[in-house]
Write a structure and sequence with these properties.
Two copies of one chain form a homodimer. Chain A is α/β, with parallel strands linked by helices. Chain A has two domains: 243 residues, Alkaline Phosphatase, subunit A, CATH 3.40.720.10; 139 residues, no CATH class. In chain A, strands 9-8-10-1-11-12-2-13 form an eight-stranded mixed β-sheet, with helices on both faces. In chain A, strands 3, 4, 5, 6 and 7 form a five-stranded antiparallel β-sheet that branches. In chain A, strand 8, helix 9 and strand 9 form a beta-alpha-beta unit. Chain A is globular.
């Protein structure tokens, strides 16, 4: 698709807003019941569903439940099976670390070794964050010639390291043996381009163990999910869009940054996000607005709370529409039904409003109603081309 | 998709049943009328349609009418455009011949040659099976050093041979010139790996003509559809499922065996198939149940008979549901509308029932009703990932 959008892209003054309610799709609490979205009182989205065109977004492929990475890449129009984000890179992104070209990011676990060097606890007793964060910061003392080493605490036994320097590849095996009673594995390159990475990793682990020698629980570490900075082409390149993200959580800022969006403001609430949108309205063509709490309440299995959070999303819609976007989209990166307390594979209710969208018979915004929508069921990666088309930003293909 | 299902597969104790009514989809007898399935009295499937989620399965791609091979491979989740089954291999499979790795299977026709060695009848006067079967068996006398030669009668002028031995490739051109008044073509390898196959074939034909020299009609043979054993990965590999097939006809047992399913029982009726299912319920994760007669009555152009056979399918459903499958699917490998007396390209009504399937507004099981179903229209190859997801057998993709 990007070959097409690169070739056909047209510049104009249109504005596109994509409002992503994370984990928007849901399930009824009992057979024949209503989903979270269908239960929520959403007069603004319902009115837009009448006016616009609806459908069901399949995040990756039928049956596949995506994480946040592939879920958002799909919405951004990047085939999530083609653009893979390594676990280390995603973890770094999630804590707001700005990866540079050539960086190698690695997820690490503190672990416990016995006197013989065998692992007795792969998670160092799930050491609490208050204890593990200072230890991660202590590991910044590791010094490796020619390599910048960044160490960032994450949570409990988890932290992230990033190696920056010449000639580092991202092809290195995990050192976690996934078992106790054996020592951590030695860092091994899985491709010759990563020989130096393995050497650097070995030296890091050696010095880390020295620095942690006096610890009871967290006296060593294992390395996992070694990965380079993902390198998708930018929104400017593939769509010709000056794009901006208005998000609260570092993960979503990071994902937006990966595709070249500017990160706007320091908003902590949806109201503040709306203010940031209004302030920056003239400066960008495309705005990605991320709302986390429809997902987190779903993850908590809290149907009622997800209903409430969905209503908060609805309440912010008039402020967006008052700005007069040429294309307004409301969708989610995946479903997070409270009934499942987790991400699921179900298609995500999706709404697109634009002057020439060709409306359908949907009377409100919800899972069942979207089944009769004019967008049908479609893979998420096609949403951006639809947005561009509705914004008059795609020329005719062929003569 | 198999790369994903291999990576994401999760083991649990769930049970999946896929009930395939061959050729299930149909057409009304006159515009505005009902299809065979819509005409049939199917209270059990209708109740499940209310409870589950429906849609239309596109066997291969829109507009493509598949044979049994690609139709079933699609349902089994194997891209039918990627996994091709050669005609010789399908014919051998269809008569229950168990192909081994390295075998080469060939469809053969008895034909009639005149005194000059030119073909006068490409099908030996469509010689009846009672006469052709003993001739095929006589050809088992052919002896080729280092090669095991299997000859199996099929029907009328058709029989199958299988060569087993070292170094046999499946790349050999047909010897049927598709014309009379000319001699059969000499066996020719189309790739160097099949030089030996062509030599063996030439020797087979030479000896066969000697053995058939006293025959008036069937005094020679032509070779077509040369093909190796297809080698799709197994259900165990790609899905982590212990899978079993309960079928009556050799073709469907053969197709199931190709993807590593165990073939259970010797059932001749749907009732007996249900008994086999019940007996083996604890031993497998996945059951493929095949019912042939919705297709054969469709092929016969007998609308009423197909309606009756569809009702037989419905009647067996309570015995399946009594076992409490976690995921129950009813579909077909393609449509066989009685109005067309043959396979067609129309999407096949499909029903999936599972606890978290997210139901839709379908009130009964039929072509028109499935159009508003929550599965939408989907390629058959996505049915298995959906089944796995609904069975809780797929982990999240990406973080």
């Amino acid at each position: 698709m990007h070959k097409l959008t690169r070739q056909l892209q047209v510049k104009n003054n249109s504005k596109i807003v994509m409002l992503v309610a994370d984990g928007l799709g849901g399930l009824p609490q009992q057979p024949g019941g209503l989903t979270e979205l269908e239960t929520a009182n959403t007069p603004n989205l319902d009115a837009l569903a009448k006016q616009g065109v609806c459908g069901g977004s399949i995040p990756v492929k039928p049956g596949i439940s995506p994480g946040s990475g592939p879920g958002h890449l799909g919405l951004f129009g990047y085939d999530p099976l083609e653009y893979l984000i390594g676990r280390g890179a995603l973890e770094a992104t999630g804590i707001g670390f700005e990866l540079q070209e050539g960086d190698v990011a690695i997820r690490c676990n503190f672990c416990t070794l016995d006197a013989d060097g065998n692992i007795t606890d792969r998670r160092a007793g799930r050491i609490p964050s208050e204890q593990s964060a200072p230890l991660a910061i202590k590991l910044r003392e590791v010094s490796i010639p020619g390599i910048q080493v960044f160490v960032e605490p994450v949570k409990e036994h988890r932290f992230v390291i990033v190696f920056r320097g010449e000639g580092l590849g991202g092809n290195m095996a995990d050192t976690d043996p996934q078992a106790t009673g054996v020592p951590p594995l030695k860092p091994q390159a899985t491709h010759p381009d990563s020989q130096k990475t393995a050497e650097v990793a070995e030296e890091f682990v050696r010095q880390a163990c020295e620095l942690l020698a006096d610890q009871q629980a967290a006296n060593a570490c294992t390395l996992r999910g070694v990965s380079p900075k993902p390198n998708p082409p930018s929104y400017e390149e593939v769509y010709g869009l000056r794009a901006a993200a208005i998000a609260v959580y570092p993960m979503y800022k990071g994902l937006a940054r990966l595709v070249g969006m500017d990160i706007l403001g320091e908003a902590q609430t949806l109201d503040q996000q709306m203010a940031v949108l209004e302030e920056n309205w003239d400066k960008y063509d495309f705005f990605f607005i991320h709302f986390k709490y429809t997902d987190s309440t779903g993850e908590d299995g809290n149907f009622e709370a997800k209903v409430k959070k969905t209503e908060e999303v609805d309440a912010c819609v008039p402020r967006i529409m008052a700005l007069g976007p040429d294309v307004f989209i409301c969708t989610g990166d995946h479903s997070t039904p409270a009934m499942l307390s987790g991400h699921s594979w179900h298609p995500v209710p999706t709404l697109l409003v634009a002057k020439h969208c060709r409306t359908d018979r949907c009377e409100s915004f919800g899972e069942a109603e979207c089944l009769q929508g004019g967008l049908g069921q479609f893979e998420a990666k096609y949403l951006m081309p639809l947005a561009l088309a509705n914004a008059g930003r795609l020329a005719k293909f062929g003569a």
